[in-house]
Design brief:
- This protein is α/β, with parallel strands linked by helices.
- The protein has 2 domains: 184 residues, Enolase-like, N-terminal domain (Enolase-like, domain 1), CATH 3.30.390.10; 259 residues, Enolase-like C-terminal domain (TIM Barrel).
- It is built from 18 helices and 12 strands.
- The strands form 2 sheets. Strands 4, 5, 6, 7, 8, 9, 10, 11 and 12 form a 9-stranded mixed sheet that branches. A 3-stranded antiparallel sheet has the order 1-2-3.
- The protein is globular and about 65 Å long.
């Protein structure tokens, strides 16, 4: 069992006395978990893998401040093991079991935390114990591959969301309004280095959500584009082809999953989607729509990406111009091949890191290697999303917020990040496509988030206390 973290020992006596004086700090009194399992209505392919199910980790907590006032919070996130713990030697059930075991250890670190702090500071102190717990679980389960840091962040994210949610509810305001000096006294340089000395997090976070944002619709690598791609219809009342989805949701943003191991296939996939989308958009009278391309690390090198983009530009210049950005084209371990830089590719389109973004060190390394953007994800933690958003803005990087097929409360967590970070232009949300059953009940409480008719998500609905997902 991971031992409790002592804030006094972590900071030292003098710093402890200085930082711990904030009456708005909280401690955690109770933390509990539960899981929900859902099957997809249709499989999704990404990163060379087929996914047809999801396990949600739900976390409830109770916190109190120094005056004894208490509040409850809720966090939820898919245990995205295929994405966060890809393995050629471990099976799906093995990596999922590892995440479930790790969740119990992380729960213990929260239960054992006895000091008072802001949620950002709590996360900063507890993350090292998560990583230690991941090593312990890997050893105890005799895993052929250790639990990666990304997987550890995903497992910890609903715990952190629950605490952040409770913190906002305790003070009757949005959690996004609690990044001021009044609530978070720690200087940003503590988390992001000397470039941020004297700065507060609220400088980089909008206190009110953007009223509405375009929704990015996913076309997976095995998703049908037109009727002839369908062997047998599901006939479950939801769209099944791209034209049907465009008309059903009024879409203007399309995310295209690519394989990265067959240039001609990837190029033709983009060209086909552009051709079909263009036909539908023009019939709808749309003048502007956008694409993003996601290779999920599958490109063997940057030359593959550049060749593919150039061929798309040659064959469909208007389609090329609609590409807003490219996600993580090559492997997530940036240090493994420092020569695989993105300087030239980023001249063609913004290239963002996603799987690589696990900390500030990797963000800075990505900049050095020519990446020009960063994909924020609620599944890496609320605090990390806010801090990486601050760093990316400081360094003038392109920003987007990506999904993990997040349903229910986890979608509100994700949409909240997108709606409160300046520069993020659209929201990705695909649970409505693949696992709509997991959204049951949420549509009535947040119709503008879960029911899309004009291509936009009405993010003004994320206006309640905490992270906005009232449970």
């Amino acid at each position: 069992m991971t031992s409790a973290v002592s804030r006094r020992s972590f900071l030292g006596t003098s710093a402890f006395m200085l930082l711990d004086a904030n009456p708005n700090d909280i401690r955690i009194d109770e933390i509990t978990t539960s899981e929900e399992d859902f099957h997809y209505r249709a499989p999704m392919k990404f990163g060379g893998n087929i996914v047809d199910r999801v396990s949600l980790l739900n976390v409830h907590c109770r916190v109190r401040n120094r005056a004894g006032k208490s509040a409850r919070g809720f966090g939820s996130m898919p245990l995205g093991n295929i994405w966060s713990f890809p393995s050629r030697v471990l099976k799906y059930d093995d990596t999922l079991a590892a995440m479930t075991a790790l969740a119990k250890r992380i729960q213990a670190t929260y239960a054992g935390y006895k000091d008072y702090a802001h949620p950002v500071e709590i996360n900063h102190q507890l993350e090292p114990s998560w990583l230690k717990a991941a090593s312990e679980v890997s050893a105890e389960l005799k895993l052929a591959e250790p639990i990666p840091k990304l997987c550890t962040l995903v497992t910890g994210s609903p715990f952190e969301a629950a605490v952040a949610d409770a913190y906002g509810k305790l003070y009757g305001r949005s959690t996004y309004q609690t990044y001021t000096r009044e609530f978070l006294r720690e200087d940003l340089s503590r988390y992001l280095g000397s470039d941020f000395k004297g700065e507060t997090l609220d400088r980089y976070v909008l206190p009110e959500p953007k009223p509405r944002m375009p929704l990015y619709h996913l076309v997976g690598a095995v998703d049908p584009i037109v009727d002839s791609d369908i062997a047998k219809r599901l006939n479950d009342g939801l769209p099944e082809t791209l034209p049907e989805w465009i008309n059903f949701n009024g879409l203007s943003h399309i995310k295209i999953k690519l394989n990265g191991d067959n240039l001609a296939w990837d190029r033709d996939r983009v060209l086909t989607i552009d051709r079909v989308a263009s036909e539908v958009m023009r019939k709808r009278g749309a003048a502007d729509w956008k694409y993003s391309l996601d290779f999920n690390e599958r490109c063997p090198n940057v030359a593959y990406l550049m060749d593919m983009l150039r061929q798309v530009k040659e064959k469909a210049p208007d389609g090329f111009n609609r590409i807003q950005y490219v996600e993580q084209p090559t492997a997530r371990d940036l240090r493994k091949d420092r020569r695989n830089v993105m300087h030239e590719a980023s001249k063609l389109r913004p290239v963002v890191i996603d799987e690589s973004l696990t900390d500030l060190e990797n963000l800075l390394l990505a900049r050095e290697m020519g990446y020009t953007g960063a994909a924020l994800k609620a599944c890496k933690g609320q605090s990390q999303a806010m801090l990486m958003a601050a760093a990316a803005q400081k360094y003038k990087m392109f920003l987007c917020v990506q999904d993990l097929t997040c349903p229910g409360a986890s979608l509100i967590h994700s949409a909240g990040v997108a709606a409160h970070v300046p520069g993020v232009a659209a929201i990705e949300a695909n649970a409505r496509q693949y696992v709509p059953k997991a959204n049951a009940g949420w549509e009535k409480r947040f119709p503008g988030i879960f029911i899309i008719k004009d291509g936009y998500m009405k993010t003004s609905e994320i206006n309640g206390p905490g992270l906005g997902a009232v449970v």
